[in-house]
Design brief:
This protein is α+β, with helices and mostly antiparallel strands and 141 residues long. Helices cover 50% and strands 21% of the residues. The protein contains two helices and four strands. It is elongated. It starts with a helix and ends with a helix. The mean pLDDT is 93.
């Protein structure tokens, strides 16, 4: 029973690391979406640059298992969107305004993927809890 209970605890801890990583991913996605239509604060300056989260696996020595962590958050090096808006206060001499390189469709797709991964990890925790409860019920009877 000792090994079974530690396996349950390890499963829940590993799934919890997935929850944390996906929550961090959602934070980055929300930052990207929130800044999708912002402009630079100075004339000819660069606007917000999209951020891309990365994940890494790490050995958790207390669990003796690989867990996932949110890795470096890298800037997306793709080009900014440019619109001709000569009346915009931050337009350059040619009347162009740079907008962030955030594509709402890509962000929504990433958000959906993060949501599914989060739910999968949550389901692991729920299933593990049900298994523990059923084991305890069997031992009581």
């Amino acid at each position: 029973m000792a090994n079974d209970s530690s396996d349950f605890a390890r499963s829940m801890a590993i799934a919890t690391s997935g929850l944390r990583a996906q929550a961090g991913r959602m934070r980055v996605i929300s930052e990207n979406i929130a800044n999708a239509d912002s402009t630079a604060q100075t004339i000819g300056g660069d606007p917000y640059r999209r951020k891309v989260p990365t994940f890494s696996s790490a050995l958790d020595r207390t669990l003796d298992a690989q867990v996932v962590t949110l890795g470096r958050i890298k800037p997306d090096q793709s080009n900014f969107r440019v619109k001709y808006e000569p009346n915009n206060p931050v337009a350059d001499a040619a009347g162009n305004v740079k907008y962030p390189n955030v594509n709402s469709v890509v962000e929504m797709t990433d958000m959906r993927d993060a949501q599914r991964s989060y739910e999968a990890n949550l389901n692991i925790i729920s299933a593990t809890r049900r298994m523990i409860q059923r084991t305890l019920d069997i031992l009581k009877s």
